[in-house]
Amino acid sequence: MSDEPRPEISHATWRNRFILINLATILGAALGLFGILLWQSSYVVTGGSVLGFPLALIGLAISFFAPRLLARRWKKNDRR
To answer: In which domain, by residue range, is 17 found?
Structure first.
């Protein structure tokens, strides 16, 4: 461990990171809802489609894990 101070991160960088984390969560949730809509209803495809289930799972995974992965990546890069 060095005694050198870490470089200060600008307000714009923090704002952009906050926006990106929220967008990842919102887009993951939207993909999950679209997957459920595709899977369980006749709005997109008559009778529903089996492809909606994997889309819903992918959207759920993005919604939960993308913010954590982004934060971990930024934390690792900020330590340098």
So the answer is: 12-72
Q: Are 68 and 21 in contact (CB under 8 A)?
A: no
State the Cα–Cα distance between residues 56 and 19, nearest whole angstrom: 23
Domain count, the chain: 1
Residue type for position 69: L
Residue 5 lies in a domain: no
Instruction: Please name the residue ranges forming H helices in 1-80.
Output: 11-40, 52-78
Q: Measured between alpha carbons, how far is residue 77 from residues 9, 57, 74 in Å?
A: 11, 29, 5
Residues 35-77: pLDDT tens digits?
Answer: 999 999 888 888 888 899 999 999 999 999 999 999 999 988 8
Q: Residue 12 has which token pair?
A: 């714009």
Q: Rounded to two decimals, what is the model's pTM?
A: 0.80
Count of all residues that appear for the chain in the document: 80
Asked, for residue 48, whether it belongs to a domain, the answer is yes
Q: What is the DSSP letter of 73?
A: H
